[in-house]
UniProtKB/TrEMBL annotation:
GO terms for cellular component: TAT protein transport complex. InterPro entries: TatC. The gene is tatC. Residues 1-30, 295-319 are annotated as: Disordered. It comes from Streptomyces alanosinicus. It is a multi-pass membrane protein. It is found in: Cell membrane; Membrane. One of its GO terms (biological process) is protein transport by the Tat complex. The lineage of its organism: Bacteria, Bacillati, Actinomycetota, Actinomycetes, Kitasatosporales. Part of the twin-arginine translocation (Tat) system that transports large folded proteins containing a characteristic twin-arginine motif in their signal peptide across membranes. Together with TatB, TatC is part of a receptor directly interacting with Tat signal peptides. Belongs to the TatC family. It comes from the Bacteria. The chain crosses the membrane at residues 44-65, 109-129, 141-164, 191-212, 224-242, 248-270. This is Sec-independent protein translocase protein TatC. GO terms for molecular function: proton motive force dependent protein transmembrane transporter activity.
Length: 319
């Protein structure tokens, strides 16, 4: 016999755990803070895993990497360090000091190589974390920015690797003939990594300008009005940011940045023309009805004459 009263509704069972957001909220990219933190944790874990795998690859090829890194400096003519000459380093400039220095130096080289090799993967993880909160066209733009950022950074890093031996040759050329010189491994590597970062991040400057244009902060007209100021700032930044401080390294960094600034200015000008063309095509034609507040697009309407006609036509005289 059922003793439940029909006028009292039964209490629905309490679900286990917090309620999950509905479908439309997830489609809009909205999620609670807990899921945001979980998503961030997963993305960071994948990025660190990619860096770890790249470091393993760098560790496997670290003898070749160290030879390619130190070889140009070891073959600078006219210099001789305090270390004995070897086949890998004839001038004896490269030295290490300490018991743990060889291990830490090798690990730093492998980790730097891993960060460079895995840059497309951890850059994608950063984009994938921000993508759910973007609209469809914003996702397309963000993916394009990520796809352009990695080649630009690698191009700057490659240019730094090319100019690094020339910069060392200029700086070490000031060593007096009565003195010897030597380069400690840790200081040499930190100097090289700093130069790689400066060149790589400097090559991201045009991408930043395009991003600011996409968000409506800057326009081609404002950049063209101050292009001389921007060029001067590029040369000042190159003189201050380069670790060596010599004119050759400054020019090697400033000239490509100026070219990239001109290319970014061309892209921004092209996009502004496309935007203005679309805005003109979106204007209402004279045959369309204008909503409230858009009378200025169609011009002022002529007011009706409230006075009646002087000679009205009788209704019976119409054909």
């Amino acid at each position: 016999m059922d003793t439940t009263r029909p006028d009292i509704p039964r209490t629905p069972p309490r679900p286990d755990g917090p309620p999950r957001p509905d479908g439309p909220a997830r489609k809009d990219g909205r999620m609670p803070l807990r899921e945001h933190l979980r998503e961030l944790r997963n993305r960071v874990a994948k990025a660190l895993l990619s860096v770890f795998l790249g470091t393993v690859v760098g560790w496997c090829v670290h003898p070749w990497l160290i030879t390619e890194l130190t070889g140009p400096s070891c073959h600078i003519p006219g210099l001789h360090g305090i270390a004995p000459a070897t086949a890998a380093c004839p001038n004896g400039l490269m030295v290490m000091q300490g018991v743990m220095t060889p291990l830490t130096f090798t690990f730093k080289v492998a980790m730097a190589a891993g960060a460079v090799l895995s840059s497309p993967f951890w850059s994608y993880q950063l984009w994938a974390f921000a993508a759910p909160g973007l609209h469809r066209h914003e996702k397309r733009y963000a993916l394009g920015f990520v796809a352009a950022a990695v080649p630009l950074f690698l191009s700057g890093a490659g240019l730094a690797y090319w100019v690094f031996p020339q910069a060392l040759r200029i700086l070490l050329g000031f060593t007096p003939g009565s003195f010897s010189n030597f380069l400690q491994g840790d200081q040499f590597l930190e100097f090289f990594i700093r130069m790689i970062l400066v060149f790589g991040l400097s090559f991201e400057m045009p991408l930043l300008l395009v991003l600011l244009n996409f968000t409506g902060v800057v326009s081609a007209k404002s950049l063209l009005a101050r292009w001389r100021t921007f060029v001067m700032l590029i040369f000042v930044f190159s003189a201050l940011a380069t670790p060596t401080g010599d004119p050759l390294t400054m020019m090697v960094l400033a000239l490509p940045m100026t070219v990239l600034f001109a290319l970014s200015l061309a892209v921004i000008a092209w996009r502004d023309r496309v935007r203005s063309r679309r805005a003109g095509a979106a204007a209402l034609s004279p045959d369309e009805a204008a909503p409230l507040g858009e009378a200025e697009l169609l011009g002022e309407a002529e007011p009706l004459d409230p006075t009646p006609a002087q000679n009205p036509v009788p209704a019976g005289s119409r054909d």
